[in-house]
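Exercise 7. Predict the joint structure of the components listed below.
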Amino acid sequence: MTRNRYEQQLADIKSRTTNLGNNAERLVDLSIKALKGQDAELAQQVINMDNDLDHDYLKLEERIMRVIAMQAPVAGDLRMLLTALKNATDIERLGDYAKDIAEITIALKDRQYFTPLINIPRMAEIAIEMVRMSLDAFEKEDAALAGEVYPRDDEVDALFSRTFRTLTTYVFENPGNIEQAFNLMLVARHLERVADHALNIANRTIYMEKGDITFI
Amino acid sequence: MVKMELSGVNLWYGDFHALKDIDMKIYKNKVTAFIGPSGCGKSTLIRCLNRMNDLIDHVRIEGSISMDGKNIYDKDVDVVTLRKNVGMVFQKPNPFPINIHDNVAYGPRLHGVKDKKRLDEIVEENLRGAALWGEVHDILDRNAMSLSGGQQQRLCIARTLAVNPEVILFDEPCSALDPLSTGKIEDLITQLKKDYTIVIVTHNMQQAARISDYTGYFYLGRLIEFNKTKKIFTNPDNKETENYITGKFG
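Solution:
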């Protein structure tokens, strides 16, 4: 093996991207825990942690740019770096959604929920699992595993529609529920987007491995 | 459109089997790059394209190399005419130790152009073609050896162009040049492909990526992969090619 330093840089970028993803995944998970438990303190922690995530994201982007500039990567190496760069953007968005959910938790902290949260945590569970799978696929360079992420998105979409119908019913029953229903609807929408970003990561991983991409 | 076609080319230097079963097409008005580690056969192969290997003892060649459908190794082929049609530029600039004008006029004179005015036209035309005219038009009587390395290399290109070749072979034309001169030669090659078919041997992977349309990767005398350059550098079909171009080879 030649170009040892370069090899190290590539491995380093891959593991930093995966770590960033793991942190973002944890933030989404914590934001839903805070929402369920109406835990404003935990929500505040999520907001603070998102700042760190943004910082790490920028540092990672800079590293990737540096390797591209200094090492002139081609072929599989270049595809990995571009995938890491694109994934980093998706991952950063995951942190933003967690932060938004945390802000909603803080806004709703003194109100009693008009309904126990069931569909939203279920959505979160699947969306987070999708993130987990797509990050694993990226780390293990496993296009087949990335392909398994797709069908899970249908489950999230179905739960999103169900949440929409349920929340609409509550608004009809009592217009006083509007603010809370809107906020919970936003949470559902964010989780639906989390799943979409997981799909992007899966898509890019397939590109990294096979060199072509088809969006589903 | 195919300009040259190699089919089942094998070459031996004495007992050493240097090229093994090479099949490939050289496309007209395209730049084809040969890459591979030292000793892989790429320079040997480029020298087959204008029968430069005929000059080396104990060389045996099998298979066929055709240009416009005619095998250049046929007995009735005039090697001098072939080398006029398939010009070559070498790694080290090798201008003749005479003045700039006569370097370019040398070939046309040899091929029978006598008229001084016509020779002057040819000199200007080809120095322009080699992107050197602007730098030397007022010092044409100066000895070519006084030029910089990059200028000497462009003079050699002008000298090659002056005999109206159809194919130009470049054997690592920039390996002795600085980045600026390299940039000029690369721009020039990109312009020249409008009128000529170009084959280049290079050790500089990024140079192959920048200027070629097709790339052949050679290893131990075999053509491992021949593909469009953009394919080779983004998603090569062969793992060995990928290991070489990403520098993981060895």
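Discussion. The domain at 4-210 of chain A is CATH 1.20.58.220 (Methane Monooxygenase Hydroxylase; Chain G, domain 1).
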